[in-house]
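Appendix C reproduces, verbatim, an entry submitted by the partner laboratory led by Prof. M.T., so that reviewers can inspect both the input and the predicted structure.
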Amino acid sequence: MQKVDIVIAGGSFGGVAAALAAAKKGKKVLMVEDSLWIGGQVTSQGVPPDEHTYIEEVGGTSSYMEYRRRVRDYYKKNYPVKEDEQDNPYFNPGKGWVSSICHEPRVSLKILLDMLSPYISNGQLTIWYRAEVKSVKKNDDIVTSAIIHYANEEYEVEADYFIDATECGDLLPLSGTDYVTGSESKEMTGENHACEHYDPLDMQAVTWCFAVSLEEDGDYTIDKPERYDYYKQHLSEFWPGSQLSWAYPEPHTLNIVHGSLDGREGTINLFDYRKILSKDNFEKDYLKADITLVNWPQNDYWGGPLYEIPEDEARYHYNQAKEISKCFLYWLQTEADGKGYPNLKPRGDVMGTKDGFAMKPYIRESRRIISEFTVLEEHIGAEMRTTQTAETFYDSVGIGHYHLDLHPSTGQRTYIDMESYPFQIPLGSMIPIKTENLIPGCKNIGTTHITNGCYRLHPVEWNIGEVSGLLASFSLEKGVRPRDIRQNTSLLIEFQSYLIQSGITLEWPSDLESEEIEW
């Protein structure tokens, strides 16, 4: 039997941050990832950073800002970046407008591995790829070991702490940790935008992203997907016609808007939305065509959840999430604007796949721990606040910001999109009411279906993951449990100082400007 200080289940974006933080503190860590790429959202799922408008100045941990800086430096050092962009501190490789740092998933993978590399080399961090925690052993409310399937064998690994950094909170049911899924009712949470009735299977849509470039010529049309005719005709009550079209509800207003590949008058330029490489950034003739990642309204999948249902049903929905993305690509290539764009080329080279589709779907909503403290809409949502700021949490372990952004759901409900104030991450949301040594490391903290809509984004997931690694490390060093830290004022103050020394900001500056930064 092997023994480590910390087992991290899942190599998600939060999982990487957890591993980096714990390794920096000298802990022996095993990270278990079920695919060939670590990094989750920014790598295997193909989602360029979704970030708030303050991110260039404040709102990310020091290590998250280092990750962003390394991405920019990598392009400037290794690509023929134009001279006038070399000194641009806000250099955006793709000029996508979802973020000031849209870039290739494979470059993110390179950067994350570089950041982890020193700790892999000295033996503090081990990563098992294509591995999965199959079960755990417990002694009362303490997880003692995990049974891990790896390289066609099963290994039992003991650890003092277990971090659940899986995309769906897979360690929670395995460990008997209490959790909630889906959308809570108004009676449960008192939230303005909660449902009338609790529905544990009502979860945000998932999206199977893909990369394409619009070439000058050539025909790259994929084979007609098996269910293309079905999805061409299938209608959802809240959607304006076929999902395979340019029309979609604008999330904030629900007014019908139309997308396009060129942003012609009266349309939204979706090609530029998540563009990850722009030829305008590089020396002449280096890049033949811009490359974008398609994570657009039209390829969201809300047909059913991917967990908490029988395995065969989950597999069906998993496959259909990719199928609708294939159908949308085929529609773009053959029917969009009455002629199609057969020169729209799938780019597997930037995704690490043959077909240009991401290795895994982007899953917005996880199982969520039932925690000592749950973040509600009333704590952060502008509509429910009586002040112009979010709730202040005495046990803050980080900060974040994003609007409350919920995509259409498997309960067949449309977008929920509204303003939230810059917020804090309370330690209480990271402590399960049971299971003393399990710590959530990404989207599985104590939020609701509503507040998950802004705690799920890249800088916040990284912050949560980093804190999970530091929380496990501090607990080991002090010989206490996470619950003790929150309940003991002096310990909490000491832990918050530990976080600050590690580069984590606990509160927003009081003079925060509201205007957007020009990128």
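DSSP finds 15 helices and 22 strands in the chain. Additional entries are available on request from the coordinating office.
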